[in-house]
Amino acid sequence: MSGLTLRSGVTFGSLAFLAIVPPLTGAMDAPFVLDIVMRMLCLAIAAISLNLILGYGGMISFGHAAYIGIGAYAVGIPAYYEVYSGFLQIPLAVGMAALFALVTGFICLRTRGVHFIMITLAFAQMAFFTFVSIEEYGGDDGLVIDFKSEFIGWLDLEEPVTLYYVIFVCLLGTIYLVKRVVASRFGMVIQGTMGNEARMRALGYNVFLYRLICYVISGAICGLAGALLGNFTGFISPEMMDWTRSGELIFMVVLGGSGSLFGPVLGTAVFVIAEEYLTPVMNLFAAGSGVYWHIVFGPFLVLVVLFGRRGIDGLLDGRGHRDD
Amino acid sequence: MTDPILSVADLSKTYGGVIAVNDVSLDVRLGEIHAVIGPNGAGKTTLVSLLSGEIAADTGEIQFRGRTITRLPSYKRAQLGVGRSFQITSIFQKMSVLDNVVLAVQAGQRHAYFKMWRPVRGDLRLSDPAMATLKTVGLSDVAHRLAGDMSHGERRQLEIAMALATAPTLLLLDEPMAGMGLEESARMISLIGQLKPRHAILLVEHDMDAVFALADRITVMVYGQVIRTGIPDAIRTDVAVQQAYLGEEGVNSA
Predict the structure, then answer these.
(1) Choosing among B103, B114, B144, which should be mutated to test the A contact, i.e. which has the most A CBs within 10 A?
(2) Is this model's pTM higher than 0.80 or not?
């Protein structure tokens, strides 16, 4: 707890590094690296939102990619009607994601364990097929966003560096928000419900309501991540909310360390780097083998979970082996 | 005598074909310890769960301070002032001892649905009452230890502390002495004795020394049914009770 631990060093080091990525990639003339990091930041926000319910509340959502999709379409659909105002799109993304979380959470949160996992997956699939079936917005071909969100000339998101810093600030804001929420009375209750629900009820807590509020907050943050991702890619499709995407988000959280503040960011970073660079590296060894990068990544994940139960964060904390 | 804090009338609960609790009626007054004893499987823990609201009764009525709570969910009963401890220790192992109690104190201070900004750490409105409760049960020295690292006896004390910290009127204690050594039991007996004046206590316990040391009245349950209710001396000498329950251990030793 005292002074600079390895864990806090990595946290602040990573954030400092992320802050100087644009000038760095500018100097190296490597805009594609900036793109990779930007995508990583968007996914990191989504992973943090998932970690809020999964890591602190024990709610293993297997449908969190739906919120990314909803957030992205909340940018794309207005843009389709030539409404580009970010002041409308962003609140719409957050609001629609929160609403989806409220409605589905009301049903999902009556279940536990495997049933919860399956029902969140089912709702995400419903969202997926809903967007696949809407021909007007491109169906499964998706939708191109001509212009990114506009903020009456304050911010020009068409400029990659500006977009990068907007996403980065959103990430910082999300980390701070989750840090506060988790340390608050509300956060204590959420963590308590993960530890022992019956006890929480016996103490007088309406466990369902607390979980629902937490679920909605998580969904709303993930909606923001989706809106940012939509702005970044400039192209949205139902594929963004494919069930494999939801699985990847769980990977990122578990890999980084569920129930840790900064772990999901590290997990996302490792995931995105592996996704981008395992393929070319494997191709170096055997041409064409890179397509199967999951073959390497899968066992790696298994090892991390087996030997560092609390993910990367657990290893940094020096308590990775702690069996609790 | 004062009106009962808790009065239970004809309470029943059936699981499949098994009648776990059958037509149980009893009451508990303020400042009174009402012990419920009976052999294993008599339905004592089921009774506690029915009273706390963890499970719903099939028939019968539960009144708490004059209000019918039979159909209320457990968290609402807790908010009204029904506190319980668990037979199987139900503490938050990964939290500190203090945080366990803080969580209980917080539950007694109205809802925190939207209190998501102010940190809990350093909030004296939570930590002061929590420390006071830990002092009452004798755990103030280990307040900052991880709950999961404590001894069995200490966990049982924490179990009581959590039930106590919500400031309940009625305390449902489900085998607080379970698995305790002689010394620990003696400490627990003195603790429960201290709590008596300001609470109505329903005590489920196997430890007969504890029961006869503490109880003002005793209800004996066998196969889900109440066979006797009375003062300890009457229960001690009751032939039916001896046959059904105390016989196996020998009354003379108690």
Answers:
(1) B103
(2) yes
